[in-house]
Design brief:
Blueprint (H helix, E strand, L loop, with lengths): L7 H20 L4 H8 L8 H17 L11 H15 L11 H28 L2
Helix pairs in contact: 3-4
């Protein structure tokens, strides 16, 4: 199930909050350089989005001077980026999985679709039994 997007009011609230934060930071004599330096120590959970934006894309830009994943060449560039990530995380004792093949992705999608279908059938059967 796709997450709901922010409402118009939530977007207004977010913008207002960011404005409040910028005011506090200016009052504290902060510059954006200082803020960026402080952010280096922020603890962020490694979500799919964070990994893509803060790990994958900087390596992509450094190696190939590309700013969007849609610009990547299919095999070579993805392989180079994934191998760079695997090698560097390996230096920290972290073993990353290999980059998945198209067949693995298709298989995983089928598994997820089958699981959803079974869950839906279970819900329908439960509803029939309890009505």
């Amino acid at each position: 199930m796709e997450e709901e997007k922010l409402s118009r009011q939530q977007m207004k609230s977010l913008n207002f909050w960011c404005g409040q934060i910028s005011t506090v930071l200016r009052q504290e004599g902060m510059t954006m350089n200082k803020v960026i330096e402080i952010m280096k120590n922020f603890e962020l959970p490694p979500t799919k989005e964070v990994v893509k934006e803060l790990v994958f894309k900087p390596i992509m830009t450094a190696l190939f001077k590309k700013t969007s994943t849609t610009e990547l060449c299919r095999k070579k560039e993805i392989d180079d980026i994934s191998q760079t990530m695997i090698m560097n995380f390996g230096k920290w004792g972290i073993t990353l999985p290999p980059f998945p093949s198209e067949e693995e992705i298709i298989s995983k999608q089928r598994e997820e679709e089958d699981k959803k279908q079974l869950e839906e059938e279970d819900r329908k059967n439960y509803a029939r039994r309890n009505n």
